[in-house]
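User: Can you predict the 3D structure for this chain?
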Amino acid sequence: MPDDESDPMTPQHTGTVGEVWRASLRLGLTSFGGPVAHLGYFERAYVRSRHWLSAADYAGLVALCQLLPGPASSQTGFLVGFGRAGWGGAFAAWAGFTLPSAVAMFAFARFAPAHPGGLLAAALHGLKLVAVAVVAQAVWSMAGKLCPDRARSAIALAALALMLLAPGVGAQILALGFGAIAGVLLCRDLPAAPGLPVLPVAPVAGAVALVVFVALLVGLPVAARVAPHSLLALAGIFYQAGALVFGGGHVVLPLLRNALVPQGWLSDSRFLAGYGFAQAVPGPLFTIAAYLGAVVAPAGRAVLWSVTALVFIMLPGMLLALAGLPLWVWLSRHPASRGALAGVNAAVVGVLGAALYDPIWVSAIGSGRDVAIAVIGLFLLERWRVSPLTVVLFCVVCAL
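Assistant: Here is the predicted structure, written as C-alpha cells:
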C-alpha cells in the first residue's frame, strides 16, 4: 500500500503561503454581507475558481464550523488556508481576510467616531443586494453537487423548513443533526469518496488545541479579577465572548455590549457607532473588537489594546476548529459515518438556503427595484462570470 494511504493524517499541502495571502486578502477587501455571504464568496473563490478543495470537502468544513462557537466564515477560511499551505497558510488566510476590516475599524475608532449615514447608508444597502446575489449563486452551485439524488434533496429541503419554522441559533445545530440522522437512514449505500481528506490534522495537535482553549477559558477570567479594567481583563472579556457565541457577529455584539457598557468601559453611543460602521466594511463582523479595543484603551496604547481584543475574540474559534478537525477527518474515512456526512452536507445547503431568505433577503429586499438589482447581480455572476468586485460596484452604484 502506498505510504500516503498508510498514514492518512500526513498533511498533503500543495500551495504556498503567498497565494493563500493574495486570495484571502482579495476576499477581505470585497466580501460584504455577513458570515453567510462570506461563505458564498469562499465557495466561489476556493472551490470553483481555484479548485483548492472539492464541494463536498468545503461543505464538510462549513458544517464543522457551523457546529462550533466562533466566527464560522473566519474559521472556514483558516482551515482552507491550512489545507492549502500548512500553518503559514492558515495564518495568512486569517490575516488576509481579517486585516482590511480590522484596520478600517481601528481608523474609525481613532479618527471618525460618528454614526454612519446618508450616502454611506445607501451604499450599505447596495452591499446587502450583493450578498443576495452571491449567496444565491453559492446555494445553487452547492445544491447541484451535494444534493444529486432525491434522498439528499429531501434532506436539504427538510433542513430549510426547519430553519424557517424554528429560527434561532440552535436551529442550525438541529438542522445539521437532523441531516446526520437522515443521512444514516437514507444514504448508507454511498460509495467511498475518492482520495484522502484534504485537511488532515494530527490528533495530538487537536488535543493540544483543546487543552489551550479550556485553559484560557478558565484561566483568563480568574486572572482578570486580580486586575480589573486592565489589558488582561480585556483579553478575558473578548476571549469569553468568542468562545461562547454561536451564530456569528450579530450574536456576539449583545454579549460584548453587556460586558463592556454597564461596567463603564465605554458609553452606549460609542458602542453603537462602532456597530453601525461595522456594517459598512467587508470581512468578519468580529473585527468590531479592533474598534472596541482602541476606544477603551488608555492614552498611547490604542494599537496594543486593539490588537489584543481582535486576537482574543478570534482565538477560541480557531482553537476549536483545530480540535474538531481530526474527528471530522476520521468520520469522513469511516464507512459507517459516510451516510451521516452526506446528510450533513445536504443539510448545509438547506441551512444556507434559509439564511438566503432570512436575514439576507429580508434585510436587503424592500422593493421591486431591489429584486431587479439582485437578480441582475446573480446573472452577472452565474451567466456572464463577472468578478464579484464588479458586481459590488454595480449594486452600490444602483443603490446610490
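The radius of gyration is 21 Å. The first helix runs from residue 3 to 6.
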